[in-house]
Amino acid sequence: MTTVTGILRDAQQNAIPNAGVTVRYTRALVGFNGGAVAQNDRLFTTDGSGELVMPDLIPGHYEISVSMPVNANTSQAVIKRGTMSVLDDGPMALEDALDSNITVTPSVLLQAQAAAAAAETSEQNAGGFAAAASGSASAAGTSSANALSSAVAAGAQIYPSAAAGIAAVSVGDIFYVPLSPFGGLDIRQKTGASASTSIGQFLPPTQSPTDTTAGRLLKVGDFNIGATDRLPNFASDLNDYTIQGIFGYVSDAANRPPSIGPTFSNSVEVIRSGAAGRIFQISRQSAGSTDNGYEYHRVYDGTSWSPWWLSYSQRNVVGTVSQSGGVPTGAVIQRGSNANGEFVRFADGTQICSRTFSLPAPDIEFLSPSFPASFSAAPAVVLHACIPDRGSADRYANVAYADVSSSGISAIRVRRVTPNSDAAIVTYHAIGRWF
Asked: Secondary structure of the chain in the HEC alphabet?
């Protein structure tokens, strides 16, 4: 566990006293297994001098949201957001933990709060429903934003809210209640002296392209939906890609598919199953070599990852076959030839070799050919021989061999049944396994 402390400052480096600070754990540090960590908000406040103390933080990456209370002494009511990384090395200074500057996020509600705070009166502190001089605002669209801002400036009410100290705004019988420090509005209508009914909501937006918090509004590009490019790399180990979506990954990421090299541009699609903990990954090589476009997939069963399996198409059915422990790792069919003949290899281990050759003096010659590709053990061999017909029907021959090994055939010899001077044509087929 780590304790992060420091003075919380705004963009002008002024201390921010009495501010509400919400942090949310998003993911573990690379190489650190923090176990299952719920993405629950943790709430802190700065003291009167702006000092912030956040104890017992699990090492990892966090979203941080800072809300400043609305009162007569503030010139604006804003929510500030950023990210921070907590290391497992004891106490950390706040300025070291923050990954980026905490930036202001504008919204219609915050503009309304700022106007209301500037125009706050004793009547607003009375706690009743006050009619807005410009009437009630509609519940949607730009017209709603304009009406709300005008109404607040003209005398709308401000009330405390449970959403981390952010004030609620009323316009006539309509209340605009913040849902969270990260944004969002619950639009409620007064139904009695102390009762109201929700008539609509503006959900808070996601805070990052990989924000999985329930109840937040998805933006174009989140999880690569509707994006014009893949999402940036966010981890150096594909085992850490467990959020559903499409992402890029670094070329030397750990646990990448076996043939993905360090100069390639890659993406991975993550699909989560309804079954407990099951994750399906599809990795695509998008640039870099003749392997461009190859696709691999694997499955996480809730306990461990399976090996990567290569998907086959017309691009890689024919090629170089290979295997590891009896499991195919290359193409389905491989065909080749050399001075010793032709061969065909299959991904299941089957191999066929063949060759046709001539014996000019078959009665006295013999041949010991090598196979064009070696077998893992001596194959089965089929031989046949013929004397080319020159118009005579009595040119027959017998053929045999002395021995066969994994690398070739020993002493193939032909005997002509009827004497003649023509050469014998011999063909063999050898069928066995290459592993």
From this structure: CEEEEEECECCCCCECCCCEEEEEEEECCCCCCCCCCCCCEEEEECCCCCEEEEEEECCEEEEEEEECCCCCCCCCCCEEEEEEEECCCCCEEHHHHECCCCEECCCHHHHHHHHHHHCCCCCHHHCCCCCCCCCCCCCCHHHHHHHHHHHHHCCCEEECCCCCCCCEEEECCEEEEECCCCCCEEEEEEEECCEEEEEEEECCECCCCCCCCCCCECCCCHHHCCCCCCECCCCCEHHHCCCCEEEEECCCCECCCCCCCCCCEEEEEEEECCCCCEEEEEEEEEECCCCCCCEEEEEEECCCECCCEECCCCCCCECCCCEECCEECCCCEEEEEECCEEEEEECCCEEEEEEEEEECCCCCCEECCECCCCCCCCCEEEEEEECCCCCCCCCCEEEECCEECCCEEECEEEEECCCCCCCEEEEEEEEEECC
